[in-house]
Design a protein that fits this description.
- The protein is mainly alpha-helical.
- Helices cover 70% and strands 0% of the residues.
- α2 (25-49) runs antiparallel to α3, α3 (55-84) runs parallel beside α8 (158-182) and α10 (206-219) packs across α11 (229-240).
- The longest helix is centred in the first third of the chain and has 30 residues, at 55-84.
Amino acid sequence: MELYDKILLKLDHDLEFVETEIEEILLKAEQGIKMTTVALEQLRDTVIDQEFAEQTTEINFFKKIKPRIYSKLIYYVKLFNIESKRPRSSNKSQAKYLNHQIDKLQVYFNDNLEFYHYYRRGATSLDKQYFVRNNADIRLYPDTFHFFTDKQFSTSHDSTVATILAYDMLIVHLKKEIYRLENNGMDTIDSLNMVLPSKLFWTGSKTDLVELIYALLSSNVINSGASDIKELASIFEKIFNIDLGDYYRTFMEIRARKTNQTKLLDKLKEALIQKIHLMDA
């Protein structure tokens, strides 16, 4: 699994650069498509060259690992298509167009409602049918033909998971754009800076806070992974009245640690477990 992790980490790093440094949305989408295509091909070669040690490993790969990359490819392709057809007219017309695109994305969730609920609630009872190769049950309504045409690298529902994740990210992007259009170009970070100052202060080290922010970013628990480091860092700086400075360089220093690269996360886990034990005593 180490090789899969390297592919994922490199892709996340490359896309982070694209999201923070490229302003033009179509160019950003084009670069995202190129990068995710390369990563997906590398992932496919790895799977074909190396057999899974056990079925649980195969299920984990097709349920969690492959969709993380495939979802980004779907996201950037759809983003390019939506933005390239976006009307260049009034803000009201653009917002109407983007709202219509959100409605179309929501239709996919409704059309795959049974599996959508299965995946969202973290169910596992049908994982062997959904996420094991050559084990598809046509009665479970797969929405892709990939598992027929590319049996070595596809199951009946890994692309469905990827599409759900991609559409989550797209909806977040479109809602941000609608907010900007309806608020005279102001984005969500600008609006945050206009609220009353927070009375909270970060009393740990800046490195600790950067570690926490990158952990949240990497786990895809915020906006299904659609947020970027710049946005998260800005929000945390505002909430905790702190200037993080060059947080990317700080993260490089965290990566360079010889031991214990997750000092804060380990500390948080230990503190929470201790708190639970004390309350249960």
